[in-house]
Design a protein that fits this description.
By secondary structure, the chain is mainly α. 62% of the residues lie in helices and 10% in strands.
C-alpha cells in the first residue's frame, strides 16, 4: 500500500464503503421495525420489476432483511389478510386496490 497511492486509495475507499454499509444495516436492524423494512423492500422490488408481481421467496426476503423466514412469512401473511398482497409459491402479487403500509 505504501508503494502505490492509487492502490491505497482503492483499498481505503472499499473499506470505507463496506464499513458504511455495515453501519446502515446495523442501524436498520436495530432501530427500524421489520414490518416497515419489509414494506419498503417490497415497494422497491415492485418498482424495480415494474410489475404488480415479483418472483421471490420468503427465504430470500429474510436474507435481505437479516431476519428469519418464519418471521417474514408471518408478516407477509398479515399483509395478505389485510388485502395488500396475494401470496403464492415463489411469488408475491401486489393488490392493485391497496398500498403497502409505509410505502409511497
Amino acid at each position: 500500500m505504501g508503494v502505490s497511492e492509487h492502490f491505497r486509495k482503492l483499498v481505503l475507499s472499499s473499506l470505507a464503503r463496506s464499513v458504511s454499509e455495515i453501519m446502515i444495516a446495523f442501524h436498520n436492524t436495530a432501530f427500524e421495525r421489520l414490518d416497515m423494512r419489509l414494506a419498503c423492500l417490497l415497494g422497491q422490488l415492485f418498482e424495480r420489476a415494474q410489475s404488480d408481481t415479483i418472483r421471490i421467496t420468503h427465504h430470500e426476503i429474510a436474507l435481505e432483511l437479516g431476519s428469519t423466514r418464519e418471521v417474514v412469512s408471518r408478516i407477509l401473511k398479515q399483509l395478505e389478510q389485510q388485502g395488500c398482497l396475494v401470496l403464492s409459491r415463489g411469488q408475491i402479487q401486489l393488490n392493485p386496490n391497496q398500498s403497502l403500509p409505509g410505502s409511497k
